[in-house]
């Protein structure tokens, strides 16, 4: 395979990748305030969308958890899937399913600092 053929193939792959990602949305979770669940209901999420979590790491964290842990706010039972603690994280919604996120600092989850994000296979309102 010649150089020109390889370059054309690579260009085609990059164009296809850009085309597939063009419809993906990026969402800052909560936008301004912590009404995460009501915020999530205002959006239609699709596979490939990105959630952006921005927070003061000494005051909050974000854990992706199981549904049971989401409802109980108890992370001691092994329902934690991923811990995000840096203060800034981008989560790619790679599958059509419900993603469950909570803040695990004392009282935060029970106080409503949690969000369930339902992701569909096709773009909803975009």
From TrEMBL:
It comes from the Eukaryota. Gene3D superfamilies: Cupredoxins - blue copper proteins. Residues 25-121 form the Phytocyanin domain. GO terms for molecular function: electron transfer activity; metal ion binding. Residues 1-24 form the signal peptide. The keyword Signal applies. The keyword Lipoprotein does not apply. Keywords: Copper, Metal-binding, Signal. SUPFAM superfamilies: Cupredoxins (SSF49503). GO terms for cellular component: plasma membrane. This is Phytocyanin domain-containing protein. It comes from Panicum miliaceum (Proso millet).
């Amino acid at each position: 395979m010649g150089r020109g053929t390889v370059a054309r193939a690579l260009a085609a792959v990059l164009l296809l990748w850009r085309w597939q990602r063009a419809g993906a949305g990026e969402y800052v979770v909560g936008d301004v305030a912590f009404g995460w669940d009501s915020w999530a209901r205002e959006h239609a999420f699709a596979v490939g969308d990105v959630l952006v979590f921005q927070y003061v790491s000494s005051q909050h964290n974000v854990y992706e958890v199981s549904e049971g842990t989401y409802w109980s706010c108890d992370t001691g039972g092994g329902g934690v899937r991923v811990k995000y603690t840096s203060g800034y994280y981008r989560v790619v919604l790679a599958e059509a399913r419900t993603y469950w996120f909570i803040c695990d600092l004392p009282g935060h989850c029970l106080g409503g600092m949690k969000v369930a994000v339902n992701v569909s296979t096709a773009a909803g309102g975009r």
